[in-house]
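Record 1 of the preview.
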Amino acid sequence: MAKEIIHTDQAPAAVGAYSQAVRAGNTVYLSGQIAIDPATQEIIEGGAEAQAKRVLKNLEAVLKAADCTFKDVVKAEIFLDDINDFATVNDIYAEYFTEEPPARACVEVGRLPKGVAVEISLIAVK
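->
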C-alpha cells in the first residue's frame, strides 16, 4: 500500500523528522500538534486554554488538507504536562467533537516539546 504525505502551510511546519500527516489507504495519521502559530512559527502564550485552542485549529487545518473533518476522526491522543489542565482542555476539545466523539486517551507526561502545555494527535478514516 502506498502512503501519501499530507502537508499544509495552514499548520506549523514540522519541528523534526516527521510529516504533518500520512495517508495510508483510507486512514490518515496526524502527527501530534503543539501550540505553534503557523504564521509566525512561535509558541502561543496563555497556558493550556489558549494552547489547546491553537492545537485544535492546527489539527483542523491538517485534516482539511487531507480532505477530512473532525467527524472523520476515530482516535485522539492528548498529552498534558499537567493533568490538572484536563477539564480546561476537555471543554475546548468537546467544542470540536460535538457528536459521536472518537476513542481517546489523555495522559500527563513529564515534558512536551518546546515546553508547551498540551499536544494532541489524531487518526481519521475517510
